[in-house]
Amino acid sequence: MASFPPRVNEKEIVRSRTIGELLAPAAPFDKKCGRENWTVAFAPDGSYFAWSQGHRTVKLVPWSQCLKNFLLHGTKNITNSSCLRLSRQNSDGGQKNKPREHIIDCGDIVWSLAFGSSVPEKQSRCVNIEWHRFRFGQDQLLLATGLNNGRIKIWDVYTGKLLLNLVDHTEVVRDLTFAPDGSLILVSASRDKTLRVWDLKDDGNMMKVLRGHQNWVYSCAFSPDSSMLCSVGASKAVFLWNMDKYTMIRKLEGHHHDVVACDFSPDGALLATASYDTRVYIWDPYTGDILMEFGHLFPPPTPIFAGGANDRWVRSVSFSHDGLHVASLADDKMVRFWRIDEDYPVQVAPLTNGLCCAFSTDGSVLAAGTHDGSVYFWATPRQVPSLQHLCRMSIRRVMPTQEVQELPIPSKVLEFLSYRV
């Protein structure tokens, strides 16, 4: 394992270019508590951007229109300003799925968001499909919201209408993730120490409860082929689950504090986890090996110091869709962009009180949410990937680590195709 603390003066590192800001409106006597933007999300097809604006409210905006507004009106926008207002008048059938802005009152504090799209060919696991209330078409786009009271509400993105109300968790629903295969399988992570698997094509039927965490579950993420799920939580927990059998594959050991975020690389070969121990680890999920460590405090803290209040808690991590860059957000008022083969950030951006971050669908923009319900956007590093990186991603999309290692090819070629330090 190699440890990569930042060894370069951050004044020498390139500052990311600001794309825009969506600033939450503040009422004269607005309470600070409840305004937090715990989650931001981009639709899989890039059509929408959503964030929890605080005080039960989720805002959905067409992403292309949002970018256009930044270009026309400058980087700053108040989220209720007229320049972001789009037509909400009833449209005819031909314009049914034309992106329109929606403001959704979820009825309670929103902790998590996730977009899900439907693929009709991916059938529900339910046998009695003729009894379904909803028949999702190929053009369906859903938004799931996880609430403070343990409920999950499912909304139609195009109309803003509530479709389903999923009730089973007993505590805050801290994270949500849809299977990328279009099956509309939804996994929820909760402070009640469980993960629950829901089939939205079966009218939101709860299929399975995944138990194993001994404390709060903070985050969960599907692998790109939907076969594996990672869940992370308090007490240093990082679990991998087989989503065909709903069984635990392994527990990953290495962090020294609560693990609060996770994300797979686009080829599924790498897993990034972020922890309050000031570190982001890059794992091989098939072997459990730590391949890289991105430190946010130099020199690296001892395990005792890393396990306490160190002022460098890493709050969020996200893999770019180029598979080459990782973004992290920490309590030191900084967003960092890392290359998976570099030992220091390649770009940084200032951010106070950041809570969450996510790359846009095409990977060109990073969005980050803050304590006051606002969102900030930056241009991401754009670099031509090496031939090695393209070859690795191509083969790892279809082969796990063990199968690659067993290929009857020269050792040098095998090394070329492997993610190693």
Your description of this structure?
- By secondary structure, the protein is mainly β.
- It has five helices and 30 strands.
- It has helices spanning 63-73, 303-306, 387-396, 401-405, 411-416, and strands at 14-15, 18-23, 40-42, 48-54, 57-62, 76-78, 102-105, 110-117, 141-147, 151-156, 162-167, 173-178, 185-190, 194-199, 205-211, 217-222, 228-233, 237-242, 247-251, 259-264, 271-275, 279-284, 289-295, 314-319, 325-330, 334-339, 345-350, 354-359, 365-370, 375-379.
- A five-stranded mixed beta sheet has the order 1-27-26-25-24, with no helix packed on it. Strands 6-2-30-29-28 form a five-stranded mixed beta sheet, covered by helices on one side.
- Strand 10 and strand 11 form a beta hairpin.
- The longest helix is centred in the N-terminal third of the chain and has 11 residues, at 63-73.
- The protein is globular, with a radius of gyration of 21 Å.
- The chain starts with 13 loop residues before the first strand and ends in a 5-residue tail after the last helix.
- The model is unreliable at 2-11 and 80-95 (pLDDT under 50).
- This is WD repeat and SOCS box-containing protein 1.
- Pathway: Protein modification; protein ubiquitination.
- It comes from Catagonus wagneri.
